[in-house]
């Protein structure tokens, strides 16, 4: 695996897409919970014939690994273990530059190579390790810095698209209901099935508006508020 690190808007996602196109068939490990494929989650995709095919998702439940580092490391590692040995893969990360967290992430994922885009301090924090292959790259010249409003709009659009084919269904629910938060619905192995909006609660079950398919073993509240405009229901 090639793991891409660096600040926000350095061009990591653009570079990842180029590498996938060049590889043909390869895996994409999307580790950006803020601006990735689905906010609050990590995703593993198989890139084949120019398309990204979802393999599995894990729930982080927040838009940054900051403050949830242990959960983020485990969530990433669970997906990385699904990549067949020897398969080409690219890991695309968020813009957190915490050297301690990034070193732990590299230790957990054990990539063949790490590319740091536009963050010399982070590069130095990793490059002293003789057992790590780390390269410093300049930010891509075409990378454009997004405004906070653009980022919020992007997250909202992806969440609303996620709920496009949502319907009501019951799922196990423990604890007091949180009506203004999204719930993450998990399968019996702990992988993410989909988000849910809680509509009703009672008797250890919740009625959710959700696109989730398959058996739901657990519903976990996240730190994500309902997208605006509000979801139906």
Outline the secondary-structure elements.
Elements lengths: L1 E4 L6 H12 L2 E6 L9 E8 L2 E9 L9 H12 L8 E5 L5 H11 L3 E5 L2 H8 L6 E4 L10 H15 L4 E6 L8 E6 L5 E11 L2 E6 L7 E8 L8
Parallel strand pairs: 1-5, 1-6, 2-5, 6-7
Antiparallel strand pairs: 2-3, 3-4, 8-11, 9-10, 9-12, 10-11
Helix pairs in contact: 2-3, 3-4
Using the coordinates shown, work out and report the CATH topology of the largest domain: Rossmann fold
Counting DSSP H or I runs of 4 or more residues, the number of helices is 5
CA radius of gyration is: 18 Å
**Count of β-strands:** 12
Largest sheet: number of strands, sense, barrel closure:
7 strands, mixed
Low-confidence stretches: none
The proportion of strand residues reads: 25-35%
Structural class: alpha/beta
Q: Based on CA inertia axes, which overall geometry fits?
A: globular
CATH superfamily placement of the largest domain: P-loop containing nucleotide triphosphate hydrolases
What is the level 1 CATH name of the largest domain? Alpha Beta
Order of helices and strands: EHEEEHEHEHEHEEEEE
Structure, explained:
The chain has 233 residues and is an alpha/beta fold. The protein folds into two domains: 2-137, P-loop containing nucleotide triphosphate hydrolases (Rossmann fold), CATH 3.40.50; 148-225, no CATH class. 25% of the residues lie in helices and 33% in strands. It is built from five helices and twelve strands. The chain has helices at residues 12-23, 69-80, 99-109, 120-127, 148-162; strands at residues 2-5, 26-31, 41-48, 51-59, 89-93, 113-117, 134-137, 167-172, 181-186, 192-202, 205-210, 218-225. It has a seven-stranded mixed β-sheet with strand order 4-3-2-5-1-6-7, with helices on both faces. A five-stranded antiparallel β-sheet has the order 8-11-10-9-12, with no helix packed on it. Strand 6 (113-117), helix 4 (120-127) and strand 7 form a beta-alpha-beta unit. It is globular. The model has no long low-confidence stretch (mean pLDDT 94).
